[in-house]
Amino acid sequence: MSDPRKDATNPADELGPPTPRARIRRVREKLLAWYDAHHRDLPWRRSRDPYAIWISETMLQQTRVETVIPYYRRFLERFPDIGSLATADRDDVYEHWAGLGYYSRARNLHNAAQMMVADFAGNVPSNAEDLQKLPGVGRYTAGAVASIAYGEPEPVVDGNVIRVLTRLLDMRADVTRKPVLERLWHEAGSLARGARPGDINQALMEFGATVCTPKSPRCKRACPLARMCHARAAGTVDELPNKPRKKKPKPVEAVSVWLPRGNRVLAVQRPETGLLANLWEFPGGELERGEEAKAHVERIVRNSVGLEILNPTYAGTVEHIFTHRHLQLHVFRAAGAEGRVGLNGYQAHKWIAPKKFDSLPIASLTQKALELV
Ligand code: SF4
Fold first, then answer.
1. Does the N terminus or the C terminus of the chain have fewer Cβ atoms within 10 A?
2. What spacing in Å lies between the alpha carbon of 94 and ligand 1's midpoint?
3. pLDDT in tens, 181-192
């Protein structure tokens, strides 16, 4: 079997001519028929309200469908329309996002709602170009909202769509290269042109999520496109899409401390920019390479919040892999702290009731630390 990675030379030569219209038509018909028979009944699919569709598409970025469903319902109950979201308090928006992660999405939703009120007469823009003027709305979300809510023939390309298309076309070039990705947008655009563009986009994504899956795709038993699939004919299904292997993330260790005073506990807010911007966490900081957590936890807390902690005891370690870093966070529990708070590297702090901690905007890493203590 050929190695797609070795074949990936000049994408322009390798990609060949775009898919003929007749084949596009057949793929559309089969996918739509499959979608009509098999699509999942999801709450946002019952709505044609552009606002609700925009909220769902934003929540679905980086988050699984099952996780999103209860958040989507709660969020829409509290902020049923653009006006209620635009005029809401930022903390209230964050509170209804708490636990969903990637809080920049909540901030962008809030800012975008205000922009819709100011610049779009209180409506969700109806075309992909205007949609992309909103904070947090990229090419994918703009295509999804324009096609699903407004029936515009705009494509979407996400990980599922890339997988389905590269396999259908046996496209072996490196999909992280711009011309290759552009070609995929072009193919997705051809598919979106015609009746029911929103459904064809959802069909492609749903098909990628449930049939043409990364591992063990259901080619034999459940695929309506099997006979038209070039990768299946060529035996390259398991090798596509061709994505170069990522570099291993750098290992980093840090400490963080559950720090009570009376019946409150200290929460600190990260800076406005950088990793986990604006999120709240326990005070702490990174260890230098080779430093032992127990030996340095007091110094690190003194440097970051100016307090002398009393009797820190080790509670456990939680891990998280960010794009470039593999973080091990050693969590401690202190008996108390002396001194006055003086922040270094944080933008704010508050002493809050322990059970209120998880209603703050926190990262999933802090959620794991919270479960430990
Ligand atoms: S035959 Fe397999 S690889 Fe090809 S489209 Fe169907 S599920 Fe995907």
1. N
2. 40
3. 999 999 999 999
Cα(368)–Cα(372) distance, integer angstroms: 7
Nearest C-alpha to atom 8 of ligand 1 is from which residue? 212
The reported pLDDT for the residue numbered 179 is 94
pLDDT digit string (tens) for 132-149? 999 999 999 999 999 999
What counts of helices (H) and strands (E) characterise the chain?
A: 17, 10
57 a catalytic residue: yes
pLDDT digits (tens, 9 = 90+) for 15-31: 778 888 999 999 999 99
CA-wise closest residue to 167 among 228, 244, 246:
228
Mean pLDDT of 160-189: 96
How much distance in Å is there from the Cα of 79 to the middle of ligand 1? 40
Q: Domains, the chain, ranges and CATH?
A: 4-239 (1.10.340.30), 250-372 (3.90.79.10)
Long-range contacts from 182-186, C-beta under 8 angstroms, 24+ separation = 183/11, 183/15, 183/18, 184/157, 185/139, 185/155, 185/157, 186/18
Is the Cα dihedral 43, 57, 146, 159 positive or negative?
negative
pLDDT higher than threshold 50 for residue 10: no
Owner of token pair 């999804």: 144
Separation of alpha carbons 135 and 277, rounded Å: 16
- Cα distances (angstroms) measured from residue 118 to each of 42, 78, 112, 126, 363: 31, 21, 10, 16, 31
| Three-class DSSP category at 318 | strand
pTM (2 decimals)? 0.78
Decide whether any atom of ligand 1 lies within 6 Å of the 168 Cβ.
Answer: yes
Q: How far is CA 73 from CA 10, 68, 80, 150, in A?
A: 47, 9, 10, 22
| pLDDT above 70 for 12 | no
Task: Name the helix (H) or strand (E) containing 333.
Answer: strand 325-333
